[in-house]
């Protein structure tokens, strides 16, 4: 570890930067959601590392030990709950383990796997993000004295949303197996929720409903694909 990194990880938290000294590993395949996390960490004083798959997260964790791990439930190579379960049983245990998803029904599975808490997407409130971590830290890791509760919210660049749409389109172009459809619909549902794209969310829900009813989602997938391509061909600011 270089001198600057050592300094950043040993500095005490302050009222303005209550997560100063913490390192957060975000296990998240959505660039849009991860950009929100990056902004929240930056404004809170925490350092952030990112892994976009379970395999990448395990590689990170074999090299260093973060203070906080935030794990998305749906990942390309499996369920985030598997990683949460492994981390919750590990010794020494990670200080704070949180699960996150745009699907609120995932909270029970996250807690059952051993997470300390659940954070729903979209994660935009600075105060809520800080509280979700601080409430699980021991007193000696808390910022001293009173601190003002921020009303600030973060707004990630929509270019990151375009990156997510491009990723989904690329996956669908190469594989339309049931497992891939499960992943892509979950992925697009999460990023559409984070980006507040109601039309995209509705299109994803139609595909999910068709598959749940045992109906081939041909029409729904065609409409969803058309919507993704329309957004990708639009101006960069959507």
From TrEMBL:
It holds the Pfam family Response_reg. The keyword Phosphoprotein applies. Gene3D superfamilies: 3.40.50.2300. It comes from the Bacteria. Keywords: Phosphoprotein. The modification 4-aspartylphosphate is found at residue 72. Residues 23-136 form the Response regulatory domain. This is Response regulator receiver domain-containing protein. It comes from Loktanella fryxellensis.
